Amino acid sequence: MRNWWAGLDGKSRTAAASVCVVVVMASLAWAAVPLYNLFCRVTGFGGTTQVAEVASDEILDQTINIRFDASVERGFPWEFRPVERTMTLRIGETGIAFYEAYNPTDHVVAGTASYNVTPYAAGGYFTKIACFCFTMQVLQPGERVQMPVTFYVDPDLVNDMDARDINTITLSYTFHPAELPESAAPVATN
């Protein structure tokens, strides 16, 4: 490689260096989104919640209020709302909340939900066991569904200097349009 580089004139070296910089920058840009998502999932940064397969094995006497919020992306035709606006749980206790979605249109609509919690310091402690947000949702014309989220607040919250004084966590979802899968053909209506 050294002999190759030495054999280039000034303009060729500049062009080769520019190509190398572009390749490195494109590689970093391509890797940035998955690395950022991984960072957020691991740390709870930006209100990103955690995921677990089982409930907490520790339940504290201290309670915490959970608020539920719902919205849809501008132009998305669904109606979407939490069934219950708030609940109070003991820290570590498993809770289940329902959100309702309604497709008022005359065609099949698919959507996916993005989510976060506030305050952001609670993201690393709000743990979902099961959630409608893990998969795409497809609603037939006029269909109304209730979708559950099962969760708990990790007891380690009380040991975190930045999070231990949190007494209310807001769980927010926003539904966005998704491309309709071929398997989701419209249901024939009479």
Q: Could you please describe the fold and organization of this structure?
A:
The protein has helices at 2-6, 10-43, and strands spanning 50-51, 63-72, 79-82, 86-90, 95-102, 109-118, 126-131, 137-139, 144-153, 168-178. The N and C termini lie far apart (72 Å). The longest helix is centred in the N-terminal third of the chain and has 34 residues, at 10-43. The strands form two sheets. The protein has a five-stranded mixed β-sheet with strand order 1-7-9-5-3, with no helix packed on it. A five-stranded mixed β-sheet has the order 4-2-10-6-8, with no helix packed on it. The chain has 190 residues and is an alpha+beta fold. 21% of the residues lie in helices and 36% in strands. It is built from two helices and ten strands; from the N terminus they run ααββββββββββ.
Poorly predicted residue ranges: 32-47
Encode the helix/strand succession as letters: HHEEEEEEEEEE
Say how many strands there are. 10
Rg over CA atoms, rounded to whole Å, is 23 Å
Largest sheet: 5 strands, mixed
For the largest sheet, list the strands in their spatial order. 1-7-9-5-3
* Contiguous helical run count: 2
Mean model confidence by pLDDT: 83
The multimeric state of the shown protein is: single chain
Q: Into which percent range does the helicity of residues fall?
A: 10-25%
Tell me the β content.
35-45%
Distance between the termini: 72 Å
Principal-axes shape call = flat
Class by helix and strand content? alpha+beta
